[in-house]
Amino acid sequence: MSRILPPPDRFDLDVGVLVVGAGAAGMVAALRLAEAGAETLVLERDPRPAGSTAMSSGFIPAAGTAAQARAGVADSAVAFAADIRRKNGGHGDARLADLAARTIGPTLDWLAARHGLEWELLTDFLYPGHSAHRMHAVPERNGAGLLARLGAAVAAEGVPVATGAHVTALYARGRQVLGARVTRPDGRIEAIGCGALVLACSGYGGDRDLVARHIPAMATAPYFGHPGNRGDALLWGQALGAAVADLSGCQGHGSVAHPHGVLITWALMSEGGIQVNAEGRRFADESRGYSEQALDVLAQPGGIAWCVFDERLLELARAFPDFRTAESAGAVLKGANAVSLARAAGLPAGALAETLGACMAHAQGRGRDRLGRDFTIGPALAPPFYAVRVTGALFHSQGGLRIDDRGRVLAADGGRLPNLFAAGGAAQGVSGPDPAGYLSGNGLLSAMAFGALAGQGAAAALR
């Protein structure tokens, strides 16, 4: 069946704006639409909103916020945009980096002031690539908590969210989107008309064919995102003549507990932990970032590595719900020293002891790390030691439909699609074309910043 259909003789329902997807991007867009007084309906394919947002850490980087001011952190959108560009090596879209950096701070403050979302600034450690403490979280400190609070705000505004509403095609005439074809769980089909449409249904990480085509290095990687991320927005947009960019970009993660399938916070690595392979040897500079580390982990024997850390880092990690889940599941092993930890993990004792000894010596200024990591910026690892068996994974794609400064989808021929908007994984992100360009939090950054812009843009299109 075609993804783009001619409009039916009559629609079962007509609304001002349809928002496809009830993750962070769709919820923020819906809140902006409600504020503008636009009649809005959110369509969600799952029985309840979840998606990539609920599976994420829920941490959002933002500069110049009230939460930063309360914590005495001096930061700016200019500095944030510079960090984004530095991480992607200048290969990303500088306009989008600037747009996201200057939009996200006011968006978080607006969500707090108008909709009661509580933001905590995480200052326990500095995320790799960020020059200031700018990671914000709701008190639950996870994506499920963030989505629940956004959902409550949407409900309080009276915006309906139709769940079990799988959009399987769009209705259009030329480039003008006229509505969506919705399939219900019982097979019933509904045709819903609209004046504007916001695509907030994420990327294509759940479609193996699209991943193999656009991100071949991740073709065989375990997928740790939502299975519904099948590239619908990308394919609909392309069928309507949309421009696309950075389709090879993605967020990977080099620290997913295996076989438990639980995310292990990268704070362990950024604050002094290390990763070793089955030979008990380090294989990459862990301070670079978790996205690029995914490929390095997957390149190890069996695609397996071990996160190794100490008591100080264990207490830090226990602040994160995902880590506590992994610990409760028995993923965290302990050894009084390197030899006993090696025995527990099934690693070569001599090699692991040598690796840990070298790292502790580097932390004390003796010798240089052969992989280029600076261990002197934090305390040396000290026994007892702990380890978690992990693998690398693909979390979500970072490329997508190109958008303008109001979230409107750009056309491949240089124009704009008149009433189609995109945000989050559906849109081109700020990470550029390579996994190494992903700066911590870029996913939720583009979801919430561009979701706000898409909501405002769609409301303006109705007028």
TrEMBL record:
GO terms for molecular function: oxidoreductase activity. Gene3D superfamilies: FAD/NAD(P)-binding domain, Succinate dehydrogenase/fumarate reductase flavoprotein, catalytic domain. It comes from the Bacteria. Residues 17-435 form the FAD-dependent oxidoreductase 2 FAD-binding domain. Its cofactor is FAD. The keyword Oxidoreductase applies. Pfam families: FAD_binding_2. Keywords: FAD, Flavoprotein, Oxidoreductase. SUPFAM superfamilies: FAD/NAD(P)-binding domain, Succinate dehydrogenase/fumarate reductase flavoprotein, catalytic domain. The keyword 4Fe-4S does not apply. This is Fumarate reductase flavoprotein subunit. It comes from Allgaiera indica.
